[in-house]
Structures are given as structure tokens and as C-alpha cells.
Amino acid sequence: MEGIPHPIPRTVEEVFNDFKGRRAGLIKALTTDVEKCYQQCDPEKENLCLYGLPNETWEVNLPAEEVPPELPEPALGINFARDGMQEKDWLSLVAVHSDSWLLSVAFYFGARFGFGKSERKRLFQMINDVPTVFEVVTGTVKQVKDQPTAPNNNGKNKSSGRMQPRQSEPQHKAVKMPAPKEEDDSGEEEEDDEQGATLCGACGDNYGDDEFWICCDVCERWFHGKCVKITPAKAEHIKQYKCPSCSSKRAKV
């Protein structure tokens, strides 16, 4: 639970500096101070949160008691998952939730102090120019988003395609499925083929550019990550993904 001796940011620059301080603290907790952080996240204790503080420090503590809290709260109960997975996977999971928390705090301040559209856009651009906690912790800092291709997209199996940022998803479709815009004008038969190739193997819905997808390395069908309960963080550590159907078939054999 975070004390509030720190000045409350009120401008875009002040909110961004607050963001940078909290981010630096979280990165320190998950890298240079990782052993200390890991030990403090004892699964035998109550629900714990990892807080990044504006002065570039961090703390593991219980959530705020007041409801609603002064600030948005980090992910609750990170200590309970610690012993249920490998340390590397656990740190990646905490890093993803930390990124989400940092954004929520920054835009909480923006909403509280009436940031307009241009101010919110400028704040996001400033935040987007620095690597995420997840990227720093896992060592997968991505290219600037204007780059058309991602660094790990050549000579890799489908597992590398799963983890590329959203702008490179059309490349996935070029490998495994037709590109929608090019096929629409080619006739009904090609359109049908495209629809068949871009349907989720679990729910049957069409491909969406703003959704995370994952391809089964056995049957080569594509699935919404949410339909097979796979997040981008989990996919980062999967060398060969098998969908639920292929996994059950192998178990029967």
C-alpha cells in the first residue's frame, strides 16, 4: 500500500515524470532487486501487490484499505502465483500487469485533472516512446512502431509469429492465410477461402487485427488467444503450441 508523500502530478510533463519514476522502480524490482522482490512475494502471506513509487523505488505490500483507493491498485495476489510457475514466467507475468497498472495510474491523473484529447494523446506518445516493463524484463524490446517488420520474424517457426506486435500481424496472414484486402476483389470463391482460413478454430469468429491470435503447430489452425486461454505473455515461453483438440488426441494415443 503506497503512502502519499509525493507531490500530485497535474500537467502532462508531471504525469509522465511520475510514470517514469514508477516504471524505474518496477524495473529495478524485477531485475537488479529481483531476489529481494521474489522473497518478499511469499505465497504464505496475504494478497500482495508490487508498487512502483515516483522516486524510482518499489515495495511489496498489501493493497489499500480504503474503497475506492486513492490511486488504481496493481494486480492483487501476485505472490500466490509465484511457486506455480517458473521464475522467469512469473516475472514476465508480473511485468505485464505492472505495465497495465502504470498506464491506469497515468490516465487516472489525466482524467482527474481534465486532460483534453490533445493532452491525452501527447501523454500516450511520451509513454509509448519508452520500452515497457515487460520488454525490459524479458529482453524483447521491440522496434519503433513505424518499422514494418519485427526483428524476430525471419527464419523462425510459427511460435515467433505469435509474439510479433500488432503491426506485423498481416505478415502472419501472408504466411498462413490470405490477406483480406487483396482477396476481397478476386471473386466469391477466393473470399470463401479467405473466410475459412481466418476463422478461429474454437469460436468460429473472423480474424481481427486488434486481437491476439495463436497458431497450433500441429493442425495449423488459428485461435483467439482468449478462446484457448493463452496470453501474449504465456505465448512468449511456448516453443511449440498444441491446441486443446490436438493435445487431447495425443493424450488418447
Mind telling me the C-alpha Rg? 21 Å
Report the sheet with the most strands, covering strand number, pairing sense and barrel closure.
2 strands, antiparallel
Class by helix and strand content? Answer: mainly alpha
- What is the number of beta strands? 4
Gross morphology is globular
Q: What is the overall pLDDT average? A: 78
**Total number of helices:** 11
Q: Bin the strand percentage.
A: 5-15%
Quaternary organisation of the protein chains = single chain
Strand order of the largest sheet: 1-2
Describe what this molecule looks like in 3D.
43% of the residues lie in helices and 6% in strands. The protein is mostly helical. Strand 1 (49-52) and strand 2 (58-61) form a beta hairpin. The model is unreliable at 143-187 and 191-196 (pLDDT under 50).
Write a brief caption for the model.
It comes from Fraxinus pennsylvanica. The chain contains eleven helices and four strands; from the N terminus they run ααββαααααααββαα.
